[in-house]
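User: tokens in, sequence out, please.
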């Protein structure tokens, strides 16, 4: 199946499909969507390499394994605002 990037809406946030498995998205899809933030669920194995396409496209990726519960809302300008259960600046983050 070929991805045709036609008529995609503006995407601020995205739930990464199927834990970020490479078979669930293509580079063309990731570039066309160009989400500002993306959230993935899954364990440490999934987070080590599966989200590179999103990160390479400039998307900030949040992962349930590292960040705990992730809440995405929109700020007054319509941009994404992310609140995580775990503090990324903590020495106990991982």
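Assistant: Sequence out:
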């Amino acid at each position: 199946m070929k991805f045709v990037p036609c008529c995609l809406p503006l995407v601020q946030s995205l739930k990464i499909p199927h834990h970020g498995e490479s078979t669930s998205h293509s580079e063309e899809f990731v570039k066309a969507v160009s989400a500002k933030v993306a959230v993935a669920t899954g364990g440490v194995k999934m987070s080590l390499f599966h989200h590179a396409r999103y990160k390479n496209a400039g998307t900030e990726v949040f992962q349930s394994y590292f960040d705990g519960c992730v809440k995405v809302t929109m700020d007054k300008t319509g941009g994404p605002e992310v609140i995580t259960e775990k503090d990324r600046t903590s020495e106990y983050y991982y």
